[in-house]
Structure formats: structure tokens, C-alpha cells
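Quick one: co-fold with pyridoxal-5'-phosphate.
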Amino acid sequence: MKISALDLKRQIAPIRGEVDSAIKEVIDNTSFVLGAGVGRFEENAAKYCGAKYAIGVSNGTDAIALSLLALGVKPGDGVICPAFTYYATAGAAAGIGAVPVFADIDKDTYNISLGSVEKILSGRNKFKIKAVIPVHLYGACADMDGILKLARKHKLKVIEDAAQAFGAEFKGRKAGSIGDCGAVSFYPGKNLGAFGDAGLILTNKKSVAERLMILRNQGNKNKYYHLLLGRNNRLDTIQAVVLDVKLRYLDQWNKKRQEAADYYNRSLEGFNIKRPYVPGYTTHIYHQYVLRSAVSNKVIVEYLHAKGIDSRIFYPLPLHLQKCFKYLGYRKGDFPESEKAARQTFTLPIYPELTLEEKNYIIQSLKEKING
Ligand SMILES: Cc1ncc(COP(=O)(O)O)c(C=O)c1O
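Sure, here it is.
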């Protein structure tokens, strides 16, 4: 049997008619840039997330960068990020000239460790720390109460990296709608995926939303009159209308992911493997289903690949050890939990369309390895 990490063909087939006619309308109107479809999607996304404002942008990386700019983070300012996340969390901060300041992760949730953040904030730092970016990794929220408390105490801006968690809830509030800004990615492989790159920023502050609208569109409000040093980070209308169709299905898709995760969890009970830990304050939308084993993740993933199962390692090298961040001066051993997670965690394929037969084959194959 061959099981891919994700099968977008299966997801798109049943909604193909709706998506085709939405795209056709954009082509018929030739409203390719900031057409009516963008505003419509922004309104629906804001309502879905319970945020006052949603600003469509070019991708999740730009969503983080623009949020930092709109909140006044300047070149040379320190921005706290977890060491164990996708590159773009810290890459976006470095991209605007800010300095990523890494924190370790919590060993159970894989999200940023409050203890590690506190340690940074109570120590002497070379840079003035202006912001923190908690990442809702794999689809479950970081401890936003704890983050906000520290942020208030130290006057930090909070940008939630909700790239992997659109639709997840922290104490009943949607991921991305809690901090000063929330950055979302609609990369095709995300739970809500566009047909190319796309992203969104959520905020409840009018002044920030206004700055974001200007910053994403070459710094102008009225064409050819540039108020701010903006960028071309607009959301394409074609992507917006595709996302608007898909948004209607998101809750049912996320529910199916949760059911698949429950099935995996039940099937792996009693085995020597750590299943996802979901604290009471958050729901999990299982962008990824991540397991942890004392056996090297590479060995398990190789075995699953040989069985035709596309298991993955997210992420094999923490950010503080990446070549591109060498200039920051971190060393091996600085963030032990991040380094351990990189060695021990791996995914099982999870998406709404997986069949029971496929799930059983995945579990059976994994059990062969963790038993033997
Ligand atoms: C945690 C995280 N942050 C940021 C990004 C960046 O999003 P994008 O690929 O849309 O630029 C991603 C996704 O790729 C991500 O997983």
C-alpha cells in the first residue's frame, strides 16, 4: 500500500465544481488584485476567528513580517521565538532586520516554554526585546495566558504564529485572535490551503489593521501616494475565492482529523510511544499527528517509508543550530528539549480523507517497528 503524507486530489474532487465557478468569476471580472473576493474572504475569516479584522496577505511568512512592522518592531530589536518550529517564524523576524532570540520548548506540548522565555527576560540581553512569537505548533495552541502575562509585564508585543493552527481554540478563542496580531499561512498543505501561497493576519486593533492594509500594498492608501515603507504582500483574488469556498468545509475537515487522531491514540495505547499531549486549555486540529519514540525517529521513518507510508520529521534540526542563524552564536546543547524533539519525533499521515483501511495499515506497520 502507498500512503502519502497528504492527498489534495482527494480533498479537492468533491468541491471542484464550487471552486471552478469561483475562479471563473474572478477571470470573468479580471479582478485579479485586491478584487471583491479578497474583502469577502477577509470578512468571513474574521467572523470565523472572532477577530475584529482580518487582512489577507501573500503568505504566512509575510504575515509575520508585516505584523512585526505594523507593531513597531525595528531593525536590531530582539524577537523571542521557539527554537523548534518551521524556519519562517524566525526567518520573518530576521528578514525585517530584527534579531531572533531563541527559547526552548516544553517537552510535552512542543510549544514555547514559559520558563525559557522568563529566563531570557530576566537575564541581561544584548538586544532590547520587543516582541514574542508563540507558535501553535502542529495545530494546538501555546499557553497564551502565560505568554500574555509575561508580555504585559515586559511590555512585549505578541504575534501568534497560527500558521499550523487555523481553527484551533485556546479556551474558546480561535488561534491567532488573542495576541496583538495572529499570522496564518494558507500554504497548500495546511488544513485550510490555497492553490498557491497565501496568508492572513488577524488583529483586534483598528490602528494596527489600518497600518497592515497600507503596509501590504506598497505603503499606499491612495494609489501613488506612499505613507509608509510598504511592500507588495497582497493576497491574490484567485486564492481568496478558493479559500472562501474551502473555509465552509474547514470545521468538518478538522473534525475528521481529530477523529483520525483519536483512532491512532486508541490504537497505540499501551505501546512504548508518546502520543500527542493536549493540555486542557486548547483544542488540537492535527495539522500534524506527531509521535515520539526513544528510538531514533530516522530509524522509524525509514521503516515506514519502506512500507510505503510517507511519515515525516518536523523538524530534523532546531533553528539555533541552522547554518543561516550561525551569526547569532548559539551552540549545541543550548536548547536540550528542542534538540531532543528533533531526534525523537515523527509524524503519521493525517488528513480527513484517509480511509480506515489506510489508518489500520499505518498503525499495524508502526507496531511492527515499535514492538520489534
Ligand atoms: C509554523 C510556521 N510558521 C510560518 C510558516 C510560513 O508560512 P508560509 O509558508 O505561508 O510563508 C509556516 C508554514 O509554512 C509554518 O508552519
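If it helps, DSSP finds twelve helices and 13 strands in the chain.
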